[in-house]
């Protein structure tokens, strides 16, 4: 049951001559990824709208299909049949290529995620570096979209989005580097394999160590900012910037941007599950009979659920607040996390290293938090009434 | 023609294109773009010689190229900062107009 | 030579030519990005995976964005009055052609003594890491100091000057 997809692919490929088998096998995996993740995206859009609606004390879409579950089909038909308006003064070639580049770069990131035991498309030695290289290419697509529309709001939205994505790229990379340091490899299959044992019932996932927990929290913050999700969604805030860098896009191109954003969310959550939550391994040793791909996708959907929850709960951050947060709070904590992880490695086994590492991390967090809060004097609330 | 010679010719072509651009364009930023092309051509040369030369297990060529990428990024940052500051002062990035030392 | 190499070489050279010949500065920066991508693929063709991915991450993910930000902040997207090539363009072109002639002659003249195909070197990231902290630790530390100095320098150079007393 665990290897059902791998065996299915091998059986399908065995009908072909031996020279073609690797290529067609890889092609089948690519087709599976390209079909599965957009389907998951469609399901996520309806979950997000219903989830946000319930948090805001209203019902979500409930007209199309039972409980609104066929809403994505209606949305898809709408975006495909809308007129594709390109502004007259827009730069046509760049305007067309921006969503294409975004979706291509995001799809390439799925190639290195291990979605189950033996279910990785390309097992590269430098897999994590490849993933971050593809994620860095999406920033250029965002800029291209904003600039080519020849619209001040789009350009402003694009500059803000790119500045935000670059600022949070550094904490993202640094919190992943902690995992690489402790595992000794950039290959994602080795990182999952390093988290696969069980000690007294608890798994060896990196989130259950002090440096892993701090790293996971910072990774989560950095991913919400990288994918422009609330509370970091100023670049696409409706009340500020119309729609930010995708103002001038309509119809299918807008659907491509939407798809790209959600697919980026999926792949970065998948990477977070691989790095910190143990990838496809089960949480308890008596649950290993459940197939590995079910564990991976449940961790992914759990992260998506937390994203939707944060979107409905937290207010939006201002641009200077989020840049301050990145460079003055998250980045020093990430660097300290690296040193604490090194300390953890060399202190040997036992309860002492737990205590010391946790104390250092919690102390630094509170100290930096006091330092940041003291800057803005928050006095008692005062009211001024019109005369 | 050996594969190494083809790579070296491509690198030489890219280098001379970058050099031509750096010497003929007016905008200061395009001169910096030409310089980046030249650095990349040199990186291609390094990696090609690492791959086809003796002792690739010593990693000399790859290390050199990686350090060159890092240094080129730093140099692009400082160069572009300078261009921005010059634009603030002289209100133009036209290199033909900046032919005096007097501010 | 293989088909893949010709396509990649054509892509890279076309990107470089477009970067130097186009009128619109932002289009030049985007063509430069295409050239960077072509070069990264050439590195992958040469079995240098780490260098190829580092090229994409650093050049396309950071340097290209830096270039377009600088173009936007200096209003480079407006076409200048006197054309895009400087007055002395012919001299520059001749110099570049001369450089290419010399380099091309050197390469073609030495085809006989260049090394031939060797076996594919297996390079793991672990070996690169080991080399960085054992044999190349001095360049590593110097590059770290250089990057810090460049970062501080770029911030100071591009900072707004304070009005009034300095």
Model description:
The complex is a heterotrimer of chains A (387), B (103) and C (166). Chain A has 387 residues and is mostly helical. Helix content of chain A is 65%, strand content 1%. Chain A has a two-stranded antiparallel sheet with strand order 1-2. In chain A, helix 5 packs antiparallel against helix 6, helix 6 packs parallel to helix 12 (319-346) and helix 8 packs antiparallel against helix 12 (319-346). The mean pLDDT of chain A is 86. The model of chain B has no long low-confidence stretch (mean pLDDT 89). Chain B starts with a helix and ends in a 13-residue tail after the last helix. In chain B, helix 1 packs antiparallel against helix 2 (28-52) and helix 2 packs antiparallel against helix 3 (60-90). By secondary structure, chain C is mostly helical. Helices cover 71% and strands 0% of the residues of chain C. Classes of the chains: A mainly alpha (387), B mainly alpha (103), C mainly alpha (166). Chains in contact: A-C, B-C.
**Would you identify the CATH architecture of chain B?**
Orthogonal Bundle
Instruction: Tell me the overall shape of chain C.
Output: globular
Helical proportion of chain C? over 70%
Uncertain parts of chain B: none
Main sheet makeup of chain C: none
Count of DSSP helices of chain C? Answer: 6
In whole angstroms, the N-to-C terminal distance of chain B is: 53 Å
Give the oligomeric state of the chains in this entry, treating copies of one chain as homo and distinct chains as hetero. Answer: heterotrimer
CATH architecture of the largest domain in chain C: Up-down Bundle
**Terminal CA distance of chain C:** 62 Å
Give a quick set of tags describing it.
heterotrimer; A: mainly alpha; two-stranded antiparallel ribbon; 13 helices; 65% helix; C: 166 residues; mainly alpha; Four Helix Bundle (Hemerythrin (Met), subunit A); 2 domains; 6 helices
